[in-house]
């Protein structure tokens, strides 16, 4: 007969969970951090893993950096067996790394006459893509697996269009291939106006949280939102304003889904294997669907994650990790690595079949 103390759970001690933070994690092993000087500004690069392994190159979204965008996901327990076969190069846009100082006009190496004024001339999206190429050349990387979120996905897809031979595959989260719409332009223009003055207003904070998470997650995941609310206060407002301005002025990719076999050879399109991810409650879902419609169906896998907002790496890391593993195995990487967790049967079976046979899935 069980003891009364065991039945009433008196012997069990309750502990409060540790609050979320972006403090250095013992599992996030960085072997080095470098500031790479490029013709388009200095890019801070953090390297995680064995440099003799295949390279994964990441690029973050607006308002984030390699820590706030990728630390949680790449420190996730189920990612560790996968990362033993790769080396991750986290690239930060100029002035967006943690503790970055104000970008000053004299730091502008682009030779623009506007830099003689009182504002640093920030590189365009295409120039940031060329900056990525400078990083790839600096480390002597023969090919990369690109992993971009939001603005970072836009930059890495531009890099693939310009340097297809250096990109083995792409993972694009909340990606867009089109110009900014009028609504986005209006909100972001107001944000950049506030940020240029050094102010981080409630309006800007709310917009960034919406841009990262969307409405549903914004009001349901209180611990996650509280963590990013604390982080927002430490952002270098002026540097972020410059990045936002550059993202707002982005040009259309000009890619098309050409079905005619003769025209397909010369059509402008992303030709590497690509995995496109978006949450079903993401504020960017329309942009992702539109871009997916312009990609080659035989080279593109599209996944919509259920119960997820605008930041799948934080909200559904287990599902993203599983999709990423299956995608890499479809490319011939880590063939012997087995899944470390059970996934809902029907969804997992369909996803595994689609990725291994390289078809275009529609997973919800």
Question: Would you mind describing this structure in some detail?
Answer:
The chain has 364 residues and is α/β, with parallel strands linked by helices. It is built from 15 helices and 9 strands. It has a 9-stranded mixed sheet, sandwiched between helices. The longest helix has 15 residues. It is globular and about 65 Å long. The C terminus is likely disordered.
Note poorly predicted spans.
341-350, 356-362
The count of DSSP E runs of length 2 or more, i.e. the number of strands, is 9
Structural class of the helix and strand makeup? alpha/beta
Helicity range: 25-40%
SSE run: HEEEHHEHEHEHHHHHHEHEHHHE
Q: What integer is the average pLDDT?
A: 85
Strand content: 15-25%
Radius of gyration: 21 Å
Distance between the termini: 47 Å
Helical region count? 15
Q: Strand arrangement, largest sheet?
A: 1-2-4-3-5-6-7-8-9
Biggest sheet details: 9 strands, mixed
Shape: globular
List keywords for this structure.
AB_hydrolase_fold; 15 helices; 364 residues; Protein NDRG3; 39% helix; alpha/beta; 9-stranded mixed sheet
Outline the fold blueprint:
Blueprint: H1 4-7, E1 32-38, E2 41-49, E3 54-59, H2 66-74, H3 80-83, E4 86-91, H4 125-138, E5 144-149, H5 151-162, E6 167-173, H6 182-196, H7 202-213, H8 215-220, H9 222-232, H10 237-248, H11 261-264, E7 273-279, H12 285-292, E8 300-305, H13 312-315, H14 317-330, H15 345-356, E9 362-363
Parallel strand pairs: 3-4, 3-5, 5-6, 6-7, 7-8, 8-9
Antiparallel strand pairs: 1-2, 2-4
Helix pairs in contact: 4-5, 6-10, 14-15
């Amino acid at each position: 007969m069980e003891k009364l103390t065991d039945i009433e759970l008196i012997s069990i001690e309750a502990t409060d969970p540790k609050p979320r933070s972006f403090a250095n994690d013992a599992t996030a092993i960085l072997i080095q951090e470098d500031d790479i000087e490029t013709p388009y500004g200095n890019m801070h690069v953090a390297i995680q893993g064995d440099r003799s392994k295949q390279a994964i190159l990441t690029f973050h979204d607006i308002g984030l950096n390699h820590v706030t965008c990728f630390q949680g996901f790449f420190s996730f327990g189920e990612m560790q067996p996968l990362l033993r076969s790769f080396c991750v190069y986290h690239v930060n846009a100029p002035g967006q790394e943690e503790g970055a100082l104000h970008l000053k006009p004299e730091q502008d190496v682009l030779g623009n006459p506007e830099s003689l004024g009182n504002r640093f001339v920030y590189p365009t999206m295409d120039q940031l893509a060329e900056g990525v190429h400078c990083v790839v050349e600096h480390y002597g990387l023969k090919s990369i697996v690109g992993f971009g979120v939001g603005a970072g996905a836009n930059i890495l897809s531009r890099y693939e269009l310009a340097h297809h031979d250096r990109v083995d595959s792409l993972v694009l989260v909340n990606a867009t291939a089109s110009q900014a719409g009028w609504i986005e332009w209006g909100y972001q223009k107001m944000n950049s106006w506030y940020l240029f003055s050094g102010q981080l207003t409630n309006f800007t904070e709310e917009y960034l949280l919406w841009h990262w998470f969307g409405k549903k997650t914004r009001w349901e995941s209180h611990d996650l939102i509280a963590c990013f609310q604390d982080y927002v206060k430490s952002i270098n407002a002026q540097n972020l304003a410059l990045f936002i301005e550059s993202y707002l002025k982005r040009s259309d990719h000009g890619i098309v889904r050409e079905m005619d076999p003769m025209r397909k050879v010369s059509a402008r399109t992303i030709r590497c294997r690509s995995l496109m991810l978006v949450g079903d409650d993401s504020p960017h879902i329309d942009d992702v669907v539109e871009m997916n419609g312009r990609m080659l169906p035989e080279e593109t896998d599209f996944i919509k994650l259920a119960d997820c907002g605008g930041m799948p790496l934080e909200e559904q890391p287990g599902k993203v990790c599983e999709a990423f593993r299956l995608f890499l195995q479809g490319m011939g990487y880590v063939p012997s690595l087995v899944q470390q967790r059970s996934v809902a049967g029907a969804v997992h079976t369909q996803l595994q079949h689609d990725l291994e046979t390289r078809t275009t899935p529609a997973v919800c």
